[in-house]
Amino acid sequence: MMDPSWSLMWELLQWPEDGRKIEEEKSNKERREKLEAEVKASMERFEEITKRWDSAHALKVPQALDDMMTNQRELINSMIAEKEKIIQTFQLELKAKDDQYVKDLKKQAEDIDLIIERMNAQIKNLQKAYREELTKN
pLDDT tens digits for 115-135? Predict the structure, then answer.
């Protein structure tokens, strides 16, 4: 059976992890929703671009065709810019997660050092108590 003090320590160590998991799930859900919305918007823009290509075949005047091509290029460039913005956002999130991971590792190392320190103190106290008990007898 686990010592009650260890049980309490275990619960205290698990509490931040549970909160982190909840935050991670929330973050993943928001990210998925953003991506789904972006995919839907991209598909709509792509369909718009594709339809315009169909109308380009009917154009006979070079200036009108050039204007249409310029417009298409602008639409495509804006779509690419939005994709790059999303990529940049995800890269920043990834960097933040990497930084948080390093911070968590350092915190865990500190926690482990503290637990070891407490265990050593308990061992010394037990040894002292055993010695005193043995010297009494």
Answer: 999 999 999 999 999 999 999
Backbone CA torsion sign across 68, 69, 71, 76: positive
Question: Which positions ≥6 away from 78 have C-beta within 8 Å?
Answer: 45
Q: Stretch 2-30: mean pLDDT, rounded?
A: 72
d(CA 4, CA 92): 42
Q: What is the dihedral of CA 103, 107, 109, 115, to 10 degrees?
A: -170
45 near 79, Cβ under 8 Å? yes
Residue 53 to residue 75: CA distance in whole angstroms: 12
First-to-last C-alpha distance (Å) of the chain? 29
Nearest 5°: CA angle at 114, between 112 and 117? 110
